Amino acid sequence: MSRLERHQKNQLTAKIVVFTVILLTVVYFVLTIGFKLLFSMSLFIAGVTNKTASTPLTKTSDLIGSVDINSIPNATNSATITVGGSVMNLNKVEFYIDDEKVKSVTLDASDTFSENIGDLNKGDNTVYIKAFSPDGQLQKQSMTFHVLYKPDKPKLDISQPADKMTTDKPDIVVQGTTDKETFVKINDSPAVVDANDSFDMDIQLKEGDNPITITATDIAGNTEIKTLTVTYQKD
């Protein structure tokens, strides 16, 4: 056997030895550490699965509920008002006036409501709503609204002219006072009410009797009307 052939045979033998060592190492790893690692991973996955399954979701734990009032008067002359609104994921609705529950309804198949509630107290009232889920675990409260209950007519005092007066001038000034937040009309024309709750307006007169109607309407819808007559006679 030549020197070259012996060299090639030695190289082949060395490669076989190296491959055998690598193969034995891999087999050893799989039979020892690999099985343990695979077993540990299996236990971890099983533990996570069991943990997730052992935490049941309640009916309302992930629900988002809401209650809103979208229809309510700012002021009224009635002790009873109509309140309208909507709910989401809730069906029992309670109505409160000045922190006292005055009505409770259950919405069967609708997410909207329109209910008459009372009795309001004279003056300012706070109104809000509480709503509950069917199982009672979820509760929401609406914004609080202020409603003015004003059952009385507004003040309307006319300082001039005097009723049934006679004048030789073709125009006259109508003056008077009223309450705050009150709208005044004189013969169907709006009059300006100043910061002192006073108003005045020039009225053109025709010859003979001139009826003048003054109407005061407040924010609650109450109205007071006064009528007087001024006679215009030329010289």
Textual characterization of the structure:
The chain has one helix and 17 strands. It folds into three domains: 1-56; 66-149, Immunoglobulin-like (Sandwich), CATH 2.60.40.10; 156-232, Sandwich (Immunoglobulin-like), CATH 2.60.40.10. It is of the alpha+beta class. The protein is elongated and about 155 Å long. The strands form four sheets. Strands 2, 4, 5, 7, 8 and 9 form a six-stranded mixed sheet that branches. Strands 11-17-16-13-14 form a five-stranded mixed sheet, with no helix packed on it. The termini are far apart. The chain has one helix at 3-53, and strands at 66-71, 75-76, 81-88, 92-97, 100-106, 112-117, 123-132, 139-141, 145-149, 156-160, 165-167, 171-178, 182-186, 189-191, 198-204, 208-218, 223-232. A hairpin with a 2-residue loop joins strand 4 and strand 5.
Proportion of residues in helical segments: 10-25%
Sheet of most strands: 6 strands, mixed
Which CATH C-level class of the largest domain is it? Mainly Beta
At CATH level 2, the architecture of the largest domain is Sandwich
What overall form do the CA principal axes indicate? elongated
- pLDDT under 50 segments (min length 5)? 48-62
Rg for CA atoms: 44 Å
Q: Quote the distance from N terminus to C terminus.
A: 160 Å
CATH topology of the largest domain, by name, is Immunoglobulin-like
Summarize the topology.
Layout: H1 3-53, E1 66-71, E2 75-76, E3 81-88, E4 92-97, E5 100-106, E6 112-117, E7 123-132, E8 139-141, E9 145-149, E10 156-160, E11 165-167, E12 171-178, E13 182-186, E14 189-191, E15 198-204, E16 208-218, E17 223-232
Parallel strand pairs: 2-9, 11-17
Antiparallel strand pairs: 1-3, 3-6, 4-5, 4-7, 7-8, 7-9, 10-12, 12-15, 13-14, 13-16, 16-17
